[in-house]
Design brief:
Helix content is 28%, strand content 24%. With 479 residues, it is α/β, with parallel strands linked by helices. The protein has a 9-stranded mixed sheet, with helices on one face. A 4-stranded parallel sheet has the order 4-3-5-7. It has a 3-stranded antiparallel sheet with strand order 1-2-21.
Length: 479
């Protein structure tokens, strides 16, 4: 489908009237010819002629076409493939067609009977005959589909006026990105599966030379974990990788010994509760740092020496200290339901303006307190201190859990296992409606800029116009 991003500039095409008017105004007058016959010197014998030659008409045509091409270029021409056909689409997840159809059979049958097309609700949105889709076995190579990501792709690839009826389950595993915004005519229906799942969520060797197993029982309303320590001899029954690593943690605090004591106590609490293999060293001399460090807590105002290396570095950020009355928020999206502690002092952050920086902890105003920058080493910049005069974090009963989430990211309750049977509320999953200008941006993302072709045509026509114009001037000179 051919369309313009700035159609108002099409009015510039009326400028073609200018060369037409000039052309008609500048009609060449015929020459007066003197002859030797006296009989022809009467007044009636004097005749003038005028004409519009063919090459002048060609020149006019070229100039008008050039102006029209420039008007089209100002209008930003684009080509967008129309991927919709028929009255609309019915979409289902390829790996859940049978269950979804059984739940929504009357609605789906009525839509298909009305002329709607059946498509998979997966990347590419393949068109398929429903009877053939029902006979296919689930594809084990397809991981859990991110429905919100597919909603964005669907919005970009379809006509905004085409009805789209989406039928899916409401498993939380399908919602890993941000809530989608759409301009398309979408209707999304979900059902809550009745199945449950029990699976091994984690396994690691403990400091007591046994295996610590986390078993999860997941239902639609929640996932519940149980923990058991078993002998290593039974590890052949474990179907997931077993973490056998020992975590090496170094705390350097030459000028903040009290802060080091707080973080050491939190790590010890983590080790005692989880029974993980953790080795912690508190140092006040750089030369005493171990060679292989998984985590380095640099709680000193001194800069880190160039030779010090670690996989993860937690460091106090330097800058102007400001008093503040707020709270420390941690957890998913730093929401108010996460861990909170009173915040009295902080250092003004500038990392929220940098790309590639992730906020781990935030204050009550949304400003980052702990920012992570990934690289060869993960750098965690802390804009406060582990000090009771700066905040109440060190006295908060969630402090060890927050440190545990840092040391073992992905091992907390925020991780969504593919076997997780929790569901999302049907009202939460619905995409929000974008404004019209956002819809134009959506079309822009799924269209092809054809301005280069117009530029090329304009250049070719301009060269032809110059050649024709030059030829016409030469003809007038020698005429």
């Amino acid at each position: 489908m051919f369309y313009f991003l700035q159609p108002v500039y099409l009015f510039a095409a009326t400028a073609v009237l200018i060369p037409i008017i000039l052309h008609l105004w500048n009609v060449q007058q015929g020459k007066i010819l003197k002859v030797g016959s006296v009989a022809l010197l009467t007044k009636d014998a004097v005749k003038t002629t005028s004409s519009i030659k063919l090459h002048d008409l060609l020149l006019l045509l070229l100039r008008c076409l050039l102006i029209m091409l420039l008007a089209l270029l100002l209008s930003q021409p684009r080509w967008r493939a129309d991927n919709t056909a028929g009255k609309g689409w019915v979409l289902m997840d390829k790996n859940d067609v049978q269950n979804t159809y059984n739940h929504f059979k009357p609605q789906v049958d009525s839509l298909l009977a009305a002329g709607f097309e059946f498509h998979y609700f997966n990347t590419g949105f393949e068109k398929k005959d429903l009877s053939a889709a029902l006979s296919e076995k689930p594809d084990s190579t397809i991981t859990a589909v991110d429905y919100w990501a597919d909603i964005v792709r669907l919005n970009r690839g379809t006509n905004a006026s085409t009805p789209l009826f989406i039928f899916t389950n409401s498993y939380l595993t399908h919602f890993n990105s941000n809530r989608a915004g759409v301009t398309a005519n979408m209707h999304w229906f979900t059902y809550i599966p009745a199945d449950t799942s029990t699976y091994t969520a984690g396994a690691y060797e403990t400091s007591t030379d046994s295996l610590h197993i986390t078993t999860a029982a997941s239902t639609a309303i929640g996932t519940y974990n149980t923990y058991n320590d078993i002998a290593k001899t039974t590890q052949q029954n474990i179907t997931i990788p077993i973490d056998t690593n020992t975590l090496h943690v170094a705390v350097y605090a030459k000028d903040n010994i009290t802060d080091a004591g707080y973080i050491k106590a939190a790590i010890d609490a983590v080790q005692q509760f989880s029974k993980r293999k953790i080795v912690t060293s508190v140092l006040n001399n750089v030369s005493g740092l171990p060679a292989n460090i998984d985590w380095l807590f640099w709680l000193s105002s001194q800069p880190i020496p160039a030779g010090v290396q670690a996989k993860n570095i937690f460091m106090y950020q330097t800058g102007q200290v400001e008093n503040i009355q707020s709270a420390i928020l941690a957890g998913p999206n730093q929401s108010a339901t996460g861990a909170q502690a009173a915040l009295y002092k902080h250092i003004r952050s500038t990392n929220n303006l940098n790309t590639g920086v992730q906020t781990i902890w935030a204050d009550g105003y949304g400003n980052p307190l702990l920012a992570k920058q990934s690289g060869t080493a993960n750098i965690y910049s802390f804009y406060s201190h582990f000090d009771a005069s700066w905040n109440d974090l060190v006295w908060n009963n969630q402090f060890p859990q927050m440190i545990y989430s840092l040391l073992y990211p992905g091992g907390g309750s925020g991780t969504i296992n593919q076997k997780d049977k929790r569901v999302i509320d049907s009202r939460q999953l619905q995409p929000y409606k974008l404004k019209e200008n956002s819809g134009a941006l959506s079309q822009l993302n799924n269209s092809t800029d054809i301005s280069p072709a117009f530029w090329l045509a304009a250049c070719i026509i301009f060269l032809i116009e110059r050649l024709v114009s030059l030829k016409a001037k030469k003809e007038r000179v020698y005429a």
